[in-house]
Amino acid sequence: MKYIAYCTKGTEPIVRAEILGKLKTVQIFEEEDKRIIFEYSGTAKMLLDLKCPDDIGILLDRFAFSDLKVFSERVLGLDLKPVLQKIYSIRQDIEARFSVTIGGVTSIDLNDLKKEIVNTLTNVTGFNYSETDHGNFDVRIFVDKNDIYLSVRLVKLPLYKREYKKYEKAGSLKPSIAACMVYAATQGKKNLRIVDNFCGSGTILCEALLMGNEVFGGDIDPQGVSYTRKNLQNLKFLTIGRSLFDWKSQSSQPKAGPPLAGKLKVEVKQIDAVKTNWPDNFFDCAVSNLPYGKQVRVSNITTLYRDALKEYVRIVKRGGVICLLGSRSEILRKYAKKYLWNPKIEEYKLGFLGQEPWLIMVENFSR
Ligand SMILES: C[S@@+](CC[C@H](N)C(=O)[O-])C[C@H]1O[C@@H](n2cnc3c(N)ncnc32)[C@H](O)[C@@H]1O
User: Last residue of some domain: 153, 185, 201?
Assistant: First the structure.
């Protein structure tokens, strides 16, 4: 069966690596802006273990648009039975109701496409159309210029929505982007020590923990520390004992509950990222979404990026990886060259919410 992984612009190589790394018997057919098409013969449940795509759909059809009549004929020709069977294998609560999600960059009138598919699918399937509830059988029309991709979402909510994320500060990262950063830094390895000294609401630390790593970090803002702890607690990792967590400023004990993994260490505290008391050469990876743009203002971005990078060079092991998302890649590149010997730098330009930040990965071989 063919699937389409929808991705945040610029993360496609990381999503591809995760698909190839986690799924067996998989073949990639297309890797273009914001999407990867692959064939996979394993169970649909395995796909839900992917953390880096924004969403996964079963690909129904892919074709170049010519006119509405041809579009309607393609919709009429869809074989939905195997698709329903596949979805039923992971969700037995599916009802005779469908919704449509449509988007893309194109000159084609998307409203016309939507009307056409709603009418055709209503007639062909006998399913009721739901305008607002996208949690049952959601048909997605993704349009890139003239190319149309039709798919159906596997699960009720898009994959990037995470149950743990109940507390959110301004500037919080989309979980799938945080997962891409962790996956790129760790290359999918587990049991590493990951630090995020700009943890905000803790999305990166939650994703790193979900991927089986020990997590450490903090934020200068006490609200960030509190939100991060609460979001981490929602993962129910923090139930094995006090030693797993820095509870110094916590007034109440965590509730008991089953841990998702073994004894993974977690420590979150209030810190200034430019001067922490983490030990030298302690972490395998630093993964951070630095302040940028309007949502998180700082007085001097150059000195903050410079000094935070210098601190990461001190606390990350030699050969470890520093993975940073920020707006001013030139500052990070300049100081990576200053603090590190012949640094290997990888860069990805992302695109989301009208912004184009850089994801920069540096291997830590200090001078
Ligand atoms: C872009 S946000 C991080 C968002 C986070 N990745 C998330 O998903 O919620 C940047 C964070 O850096 C914090 N920050 C700014 N300056 C800092 C500093 N000197 N030390 C530590 N944290 C700082 C801000 O309080 C903010 O929470």
Answer: 153
pLDDT computed for residue 353 by the predictor: 87
Write out the DSSP string of 45-101: HHHTT--SSSEEEEEEEEEE---HHHHHHHHHT---HHHHHHHHTT-TT--SEEEEE
Q: Which pair of structure tokens corresponds to residue 239?
A: 């139930």
Residues 6+ apart with CB under 8 A from 186: 192, 194, 208, 211, 213, 284, 285, 321
Quote the number of domains for the chain. 2
168 in a structural domain:
no
Closest CA to 175 of 157, 187, 189, 192: 157
Q: Is 172 in the pocket of ligand 1 (CB under 6 A)?
A: yes
Whether the per-residue pLDDT at 97 is higher than 90: the answer is yes
pLDDT reading at 296 higher than 80 = no
Asked whether residue 239 carries a pLDDT value surpassing 70, the answer given is no
Contacts with 35 (C-beta within 8 Å, 6 or more apart), sequence order: 4, 5, 6, 7, 12, 142, 144, 149
Say what the pTM is. 0.91
The reported pLDDT for the residue numbered 248 is 36
Which atom of ligand 1 is closest in space to residue 169's alpha carbon? 9
Ligand 1: centre distance to CA 273 (Å): 9
**Is residue 162 domain-resident?**
no
d(CA 98, CA 137): 5
Please indicate, yes or no, if residue 158 is contained in any of the structural domains: no
**Which residue has its alpha carbon closest to ligand 1 atom 10?**
291
- Give me the domain span that covers residue 188: 175-363
